[in-house]
Specification:
alpha+beta, 468 residues, six-stranded antiparallel β-sheet, Glutaredoxin, 3 domains, elongated, 14 strands
């Protein structure tokens, strides 16, 4: 049980956003690896906020643990998760300045430094402070439980027409006076991972996993399933066996991705975070929150900035969802494999579709609807950016996806049979050129080397599909 007051405060949980990452390609001892770095304030917010809820009347409730001070703004260089953890500065019980600064960062209204206290401190608290001043559109409260060394924070944004006095009484009677979870214990459990030597810091993968778990830890309907290289978050109810199957499946799929599309970047610090919603409405809300509202037509998406793939359980069930996750997990793999530089949609979407049915690719692709005159469209398709690739009617978009898939199938199953294997290194050269040039079109040109080789590719593609 999260709170006895759940029916009053916590109607619709809002999964917390992952912090926005910036990718840096670093080289250590001759090995390239991707290093995620973050704005310190963004990391602080994502790690400080414990939960957010909303109701159908416009009220929003936010709960946080004010364990650490807001990082100094003058030192604005991005940091890794490990660097952030090493530099944390705890908020002391009597550090009113750091406490107010933290309250100011999270408050939905401008707080006042001159706080007020309740007429009588509720039982179980050392101190309770209100920071909303005369503003009656929200209740902003920092409180220090008797059994904790950390301040906690709650902000309740009220609905139009709410009586502030009545809502304050409700807050004190039904939130402060009721049983709460022990956030200190929950925080400690989030950080647990593999056993480490004394003084050894957790790695980036462990820290990312802890952040992912934290984003849903207070939500009764959400569940976490971990694999070696994956963490799956879901609120799809009784389908626990499905999420276990997903983590097992994605482990072998990642090996298949790496075998088909090798990368010079070491991916040992990579963790695939998948967030699965129970309904399309929740999925669309997440799209809007992450500023992906231009993809309302989609069933899932990979967010390179947030380092998570997001999907929902479709009406046709878990098998379709598994295909969708394999698709999006390839996007995730390729993003890491190319140092988060956008790959061409013909490559990215083509191979994502190729792997939907498993590591060996599709058992059969029906060529019946492939007019061989479509071969003339391949060079233009392979020069497209995402705006152009996604543009047009549903039928036009489906055709572009279809052609991208046929290119991937040909590269995997047809190209090796072409005499002298002229396309043997296309994938490797594409990835290497993309990392070097940071330009998807230049990478395509580099992978095919000459116009004559591109023409040969188009001709051999047409021959392959004509024979199928």
């Amino acid at each position: 049980m999260i709170l006895l007051a759940a029916s009053l405060f916590f109607t619709n949980p809002s999964p917390l956003e992952m912090p926005r990452a910036q990718a840096y390609l670093v080289k250590e001892k001759g090995v390239y690896r991707l290093e995620d770095r973050f704005d310190k304030t963004d990391l602080w917010i994502s790690r400080t906020v414990d939960g957010s809820w909303r109701d159908d009347y416009g009220r929003e409730f936010l709960l946080a643990t004010l364990a650490n001070a807001v990082p100094p703004l003058e030192k604005d260089a991005p940091v890794t998760r490990a660097g952030y953890v090493a530099a944390l500065s705890p908020i002391g019980k009597k550090d009113s300045g750091s406490l107010f600064y933290a309250v100011d960062m999270l408050s939905p209204v401008a707080p006042t430094e001159e706080f007020t206290r309740p007429h009588q401190t509720p039982r179980g608290y050392k101190e309770v402070r209100y920071y909303q001043g005369t503003n009656e559109s929200a209740i902003v409260c920092a409180y220090l439980p008797e059994k904790s060394e950390r301040w906690s924070f709650a902000a309740w944004t009220l609905a139009d027409g709410d009586d502030f006095g009545e809502m304050m009484k409700t807050f004190e009677d039904e939130f402060l006076a009721k049983e709460r979870p022990d956030l200190d214990e929950r925080r400690a459990s989030e950080g647990k991972g593999r056993a480490r030597k004394k003084g050894e810091m957790p790695g980036e993968r462990e820290l990312l996993r802890a952040d992912a778990r934290h984003s849903v830890a207070l939500y009764d309907t959400w569940r976490v399933t971990d694999g070696d290289e994956f963490t799956v978050l879901d609120d799809i109810g009784s389908a626990h066996s499905f999420t276990v199957a997903v983590t097992n499946d994605l482990k072998r799929m990642r090996a298949a991705y790496a075998a088909a599309v090798p990368s010079p970047i070491d991916g040992s610090n990579v963790l695939c975070v998948a967030r699965i919603f129970a309904s399309r409405k929740e999925y669309l809300d997440a799209l809007e929150a992450n500023e992906h509202d231009d993809m309302e037509w989609s069933a899932a998406y990979w967010s390179p900035k947030r380092r998570e793939l997001v999907a929902y359980l479709p009406p046709d069930g878990s098998e379709k969802l598994l295909e969708t996750i394999r698709h999006e997990a390839f996007h995730q793999y390729l993003s890491y494999a190319t140092s988060m530089i956008s790959a061409s949609p013909w490559f990215n979407e083509g191979y994502a579709q190729y792997f939907e049915n498993g590591p060996k690719g599709p058992d059969f692709v029906d060529p019946a609807d492939l007019d061989m005159t479509l071969a003339e469209q391949l060079p233009a398709l392979m020069a497209m950016g995402y705006d152009e690739f996604y543009a047009g009617t549903d039928q036009e978009r489906r055709l572009k996806y279809r052609l991208a898939l046929t290119i991937a199938v040909f590269l995997e199953k047809g190209a090796p049979e072409v005499r002298f294997e002229p396309f043997k290194d296309v994938k490797r050269d594409y990835v290497d050129a993309l990392i070097k040039t940071k330009d998807m079109r230049k990478a395509t040109a580099a992978a095919f080397k000459t116009e004559d080789n591109m023409k040969l590719f188009v001709n051999e593609w047409a021959k392959y599909w004509k024979k199928q």
